[in-house]
TrEMBL record:
It is found in: Periplasm. Belongs to the peptidase S1C family. It comes from Aurantiacibacter gangjinensis. The lineage of its organism: Bacteria, Pseudomonadati, Pseudomonadota, Alphaproteobacteria, Sphingomonadales. Substrate binds at residues 119, 154, 227-229. This is Probable periplasmic serine endoprotease DegP-like.
Amino acid sequence: MRYSYGITTALLVGGAAITMLTGYPAGAQVAQNDRITMEGAVPVAGAPGSFADLTEILQPAVVNISTRQTVTIPQAQNPMEQFFNRRRGGGNGPTTREATSLGSGFIVSADGYIVTNNHVVAPGQRAQLEEVTVTLPDGREYEAELVGTDPSSDLAVLKIERSEPFPFVRFGDSNQARVGDWVIAIGNPFGLGGTVTSGIVSAVQRSTGSGRAFDRYIQTDASINRGNSGGPLFDMQGNVIGINNAILSPSGGSVGIGLAIPAEDAEPIVMALINGEEILRGYLGVQIQPVDEDIAEALGIEDGVGELIQGVQPGEAAEEAGLRAGDVVIAVNNEDVTTDNSLSRIVAYIEPGTRVPVRYIRDGETRTVTLTVGRRPSDDELRQQQMFQGDDEDTPPPMEDDRNSQMLEDVLGIQAIEITPRIARQLGVSDSTTGLAILAVNPNSDAARRGLSRGVMILAANGRDISSIADLEAIIGEAQDRGREAVLLRVRARGGATQSIPVRFMD
């Protein structure tokens, strides 16, 4: 079954009737939230005298999450070490080490489904997730199964098992949250275990300015720190209105600006992950930029209305409908594009394959076109789409590519990626172009001194065409075996001529 909708960062690493209402496989248990009214624990209006009753009832459903990961560390590849390794008969294979992470989560059903952030359980760079352990407030530990993840919204679901039912909590209606409402956060900051903090809702629909579909949060001044990630943000009725996700801080610690994923965005994803449903999101295929004062002045339009298209992806919905760079999209599917309701967010909520009207401004004239919304690519595909471009309509956070070659970094001082047809189009060359595209250059390398930079294509080395990182590594290895200290690269800059440049190996 497919489930289609759109959702939204320093990251922080009842009975049967209720079961029918929430959709969770909860059994004949009463949610911790429901006990609050039953036991008279709701504070009176105004400043509560204490959060103790709320905390006592809710805390049993909040858990600590720890992971164990195996990290692969590539062996250093400098020429001298290679020489001595060969003389000793030693290898240059990678080594491994263990890493751990800590976070928070909360149980949403009596049979042990747990919600947390994806970044709490996601393996690190070049890492393999080995084990996830969930610790309840009473100290009992359980090995958890990873049920599903959604990196785009930074959500994940775990499952733990035991014969007796677990205490659990339910999602509330985050749309009802108002600025100034009291909230409490429970979690595992800095690995300290169950910690409770209180504050108010500082803002709703808070955007950090990334322009992504999932860049909309509940902001709170309740203290949230590293390790609170994935923990619940409760309202005064004990409902989960947010999932603590990130903080904005110059120091890395809490300065009173915590961000939580709204329950209205999180709950559909959680249910889809629990039910094993495919998560589909809409996509237009455009690079966008908010309309600021200068853009508005230049185009003679209202400031803060719509988003400017900087580029379109070939073959995607926007290009097929005739949209182009310079157009300002002001509404999609009859929803206005605003600062609080970005184009990315609107489109992400539309089922792929749906035909919708798009209203835009071109040459001072408001026009409308009807297009068929496409399917949002995977995060990896999106990173490749915008590798050498501006912000995509739903660009995932930047991330080191785990296919980078340690040898190229150590010997040439560059990071590179193999040229795909999509990357070739970004670089303005034929889809059939093969080779490598440079992502970054060590400023202390000879490659940097020779003028190599991001976006430069490496097409050949020592007179031989290359189509993969392995090809270039092999050529460099052969040169080192022969005692050479440089390689001749055939390179081409975007819009430039192809030329041969010698690059000396790093010391």
